């Protein structure tokens, strides 16, 4: 029997039951639903709203139900629609009238909002742990290959020499911001809706603040209509996941490019690559490609929820049942991607000689030449113009910048000296960028040490 069946003379049509059920996917909320129900029951007892003996029976019954669900022996029923009604119906079947008292002073509206916040709080902590693990892998790679030099890219064109470690640490910074976003989002998640009822609160003397303390919430939501009609915290969580997925996709793209035969900058372990059903020679970076591809579905779930919520009047509307499947899939997708990418990156090995050769093209040090002129007092725009003419001259002659003579250089850079001819060295170029945030070995070593300390014991899995 449905919780609301007293008002209706006919049973719900089977198609409607199938159309409206959510137990097929919201069953994952069960530990949080039971956690919230136990806290609610204890509050009802403390406030004298239900007998203490009933509270004991409810808590014991819910604990037993959780054990059954944990063990996989609990039978979920589609006709009971959702996780809340499945648990409550079974509780009443087991302990009788006491179970029917559990829903006193609450609605499924504030109940599901509470379940979702408890769930999101847990997932935010888990996701931050996965991110910290990925950061540790990247820092470890940077530390192990701290001397490897590669070309940095803008517009996918060779730009300037950088340390491979510096490139990896850029992603450590991105994932640090993802962790910060999740931590900040968690603050807004951690406010209790329970006690808001269906829309307007309750005439019973509920102790919302006491329930909040027991469940570890920082505060209660101040407006009952906002408490049940809002899904901002889900949207914000999905937004944080979408940005994280973007970062994963960019890292994956770098891996894919580096792994191509044209670049041949890295090797990946066989266990994290795949072959071709037709071409025996193929070794494909499918893990990275899927990480890149799965980003689209995470974006889709964010847009779907924004679209669902944008036209809803206050307060609760059944449309909001559609908030869960996309959220669950996005969480599963990003979590698995983080774990798999971290495992794949542990097998990554740079091809240091190949990378250094690519970074040794003298044209990558053209900016060093312009900056040398600046040190001689030449305005940067003039220096840039002079070096640009010199580069054009070398290209027309079909020679590298370091193959031109000092006399050739002085046609365009009147102040050039023998020192200019020594600038076309990638290691020297990198070493010269010794300022905070730069790619110089000393700066990168400082950053590696910083991140090792920052990640020490943080969200360890």
UniProtKB/TrEMBL annotation:
It is found in: Cytoplasm. The keyword Lyase applies. Pathway: Amino-acid biosynthesis; L-arginine biosynthesis; L-arginine from L-ornithine and carbamoyl phosphate: step 3/3. Keywords: Amino-acid biosynthesis, Arginine biosynthesis, Cytoplasm, Lyase. Residues 364-431 form the Argininosuccinate lyase C-terminal domain. It holds the Pfam family ASL_C2. GO terms for biological process: L-arginine biosynthetic process via ornithine. Signal peptide: none annotated. InterPro entries: Arg_succ_lyase_C, Argininosuccinate_lyase, Fumarase/histidase_N, Fumarate_lyase_CS, Fumarate_lyase_fam, Fumarate_lyase_N, L-Aspartase-like. Residues 6-300 form the Fumarate lyase N-terminal domain. The keyword Flavoprotein does not apply. Its EC number is 4.3.2.1. It comes from the Bacteria. It catalyses: 2-(N(omega)-L-arginino)succinate = fumarate + L-arginine. GO terms for molecular function: argininosuccinate lyase activity. GO terms for cellular component: cytosol. Belongs to the lyase 1 family. Argininosuccinate lyase subfamily. This is Argininosuccinate lyase. It comes from Oligosphaera ethanolica.
